[in-house]
Amino acid sequence: MYIVILAGGSGTRFWPLSRVARPKQLISITGDKTMLQRTVERVLPLKPKRIIIITNTLQAMETEHQVAGYQGAHIDVIAEPVGRNTAPAIGLAATIIAAHDPNGVMVVLPADHFIRDEVALRETLVFASHGARNGYLVTLGIVPTRPETGYGYIEAEIELRGEGPYPVRRFIEKPPVEDAVRYLEDGNFFWNSGMFLWRADTILAEIGCHLPALANSLGSIAFNDDVWSFSDLNSQIEAVYGNLENISIDYAVMERSSKVLLVPVEMGWSDVGSWSALPEVVAPDIAGMICINAAEHVSIDSSDCLIYTDNKVVATVGVHGLVIVSTPDALLVCDRERAQDVKKVVEELAKRGSSCL
Amino acid sequence: MYIVILAGGSGTRFWPLSRVARPKQLISITGDKTMLQRTVERVLPLKPKRIIIITNTLQAMETEHQVAGYQGAHIDVIAEPVGRNTAPAIGLAATIIAAHDPNGVMVVLPADHFIRDEVALRETLVFASHGARNGYLVTLGIVPTRPETGYGYIEAEIELRGEGPYPVRRFIEKPPVEDAVRYLEDGNFFWNSGMFLWRADTILAEIGCHLPALANSLGSIAFNDDVWSFSDLNSQIEAVYGNLENISIDYAVMERSSKVLLVPVEMGWSDVGSWSALPEVVAPDIAGMICINAAEHVSIDSSDCLIYTDNKVVATVGVHGLVIVSTPDALLVCDRERAQDVKKVVEELAKRGSSCL
Questions:
Q1: pTM for the predicted model, two decimal places
Q2: Domain boundaries, chain B
């Protein structure tokens, strides 16, 4: 099994903890390991042959730094010169794996998701790898626990088919709440996790079919005898990447291929989309308060606040439903219901030419 | 004119900016000079013969440090070994002044008040000094601008007496709101400012009358030929202070003496009793926001917040009516209406043995 971790994402919703050069996957939402490190650690027990982390040049050094300590694991960090969404990143990883082991099963995992039950993930990956080995494009579908309107959904055919894998009927964009409620009731709709398993040659054949230009570019990359030395890979990536189409693997391949199967999984998953998702990751106290990385927290008549500090003494007096984030150079106080709007703060700072980005 | 600044106060309502060893008078509420420095600077144009600052041993070093830069002014810092309220502090200062200049007029000023119109203060002090020179105990009465229930009041006889000074009818503790409304309407009630003028010998005679034990202790202090050298004053203060009664000059003398006169003054005065008094000191923007010492402030749909940072980038999103204070080691987020309860935070931290006091 080869693990491909997509770690090139950027995002502004965890400002001021996250920054341009240190996005969500490179920070520690929970106060200990970073999301990338947790992503790596949860697959290490599967003893993958290689772990390939696809990031970008801006984040490459910090990414290398964060995974330098995993002795015994073969971890390669590959930096895209420009972001081109998931299809080129996955195609590049598949090309590298296929050059060495065409039938190798590759698992694609986002670097910035939270998973409470890591054993369930690993068992599901092992189960799903059989379908991948048999030439299918397998995607993990999260069993929904609420009528969430912030995720994409996948409708599967679950009738009379036991534990899956299930054929996929259609991919659905973020739905209105009425639909989300119905999906939850119907039981054959799953959250689109962005986690995939397939053989390297399977996905490359699908890319050849649905994205011939990308297949052509990737086909021009030449490898040394030792596929994993990457001695001149960077310059080749540089040469082809600028012209690649910016497109997601979901849109380009998954929604069009007839070989897609879904394996459902319940594992306490969250994509931790903003500060307001913190309670999915850390248990609040009885007053609904979460306080991460505080030297001390004094709460007087306060409730439902999400607090993240840089080892400060924090006091809250008579406040409710706030997000409070303190870093050495910045401070955010935000209505919890407005956590999505933190990105507007970053936009405004960018407009002003602030360096606090 | 001699200026006596009472700077030994402690207090917890400006935590986390204020600390035990750095109370309100030694911090900068407005982001520039400290309150003590502003108190000194606003009397310098009066060219006082000496400025005596009474503080305590814990704060003495920082106090000395803050007033070290005033070239040409004669400033003495005297540290009380224990706090004994205002009567002993004022008696000690009067004793020192009287040893050199018995008829000298001394002005007593708290170190932690805000005064917007400093010219009005100085003109009022000059006007009030005539009454002091004639043997009266003159107190400044602030013309009230709202039915404030957090201040003490002084009722004066203002009928047919022009600009004052007015005889004082009585001192009134913090009143219920019905009374405060009536005081505002009646026009002969003034806020008790804690600012006094009298001759050194006058106040010592009054102390002799109303506080004979204090007078006796102070009378035992012996001075060198050069009164202002203080070479062995500290050990003498140490010897007498522990046994002194803890009592305010208001209660011990002002409320009992028949020689009290009041001079009214309008000068944009505030005792800045808590973070919620910040708008009395710094003008809010049109959204009611005050943001002091921020590197940058991004406000999205927020209003009526009082923000004080240690040069941080601050963002507020969808929040209203908060006090937000950030220092290098602590963070406070407090409902503006609950600013009085900041002292409860400090009590709780003390109970836990925190060093952040």
A1: 0.91
A2: 2-270, 275-351
